[in-house]
Design goal:
Blueprint (H helix, E strand, L loop, with lengths): L13 E2 L3 E4 L6 H9 L1 H4 L8 H7 L10 E6 L2 E10 L6 H6 L2 E7 L8 H16 L5 E6 L3 H9 L3 E8 L2 E8 L4
Length: 178
């Protein structure tokens, strides 16, 4: 299932107070590799990926697909925000909660400044305009306290907790404002 089609993608760059969310470009490749190879970033997402592997598999323009935003600060990529289809392998009750999954990754040096919240809020606002009335879901490890706080600030409410990847996971839903 494609959550976002060519009818809404790519959007014009989204400008927030400090950031620009935009479609990926070739200049973002190094940052995407750095994010995914980072041990700090990998802590709650199954571990870092080997840099050599990423150098081989990350395309010239990373994330070139509907729903993949690069978060840029002062002209440099600092993170990514994604609105993707939920995995078709998800249990039926999670799939019924909403088709679209919010995910985000930021360079460790960007943590603690509110950039992830600012970027995710802007992407969710855009999504609400592109797909009015559609809920969005989010998964995170319960051990990821920062992500849990951000989910609450963004308006996600807990649906369930479950065990996966050797850790307790949190599943939440953000229902559209009517």
């Amino acid at each position: 299932m494609t959550v976002l089609g060519t009818d809404v993608w790519p959007p014009a760059p989204i400008r927030t107070e400090r950031l620009v969310l935009r479609e990926a470009e070739a200049r973002d490749r190094a940052a995407v590799i750095e994010i995914n190879a980072s041990p700090e970033v990998g802590t709650y997402v199954g571990g870092p990926r080997p840099r050599a592997e990423l150098e081989r598999v990350v395309p010239e323009v990373p994330g070139r697909r509907p729903g993949f935003f690069v978060a840029e600060l002062d002209g440099a990529a600092i993170g990514t925000v994604e609105l993707n289809a939920q995995s078709p392998d998800s249990p039926a009750e999670r799939l019924a909660a909403g088709d679209t999954h919010l995910g985000y990754l930021f360079l460790p040096e960007a943590w603690g400044h509110g950039y992830a919240g600012e970027a995710c809020a802007a992407a969710l606002d855009w999504f609400s305009g592109a797909r009015p009335g559609e809920p969005v879901v989010l998964y995170t490890q319960t051990a990821n306290v920062r992500s849990m706080r951000l989910a609450a600030r963004l308006g996600f409410t807990e649906r369930e907790r479950f065990e996966a990847y050797g850790a307790e996971q949190w599943f939440g839903v953000r229902s559209p404002v009517r």
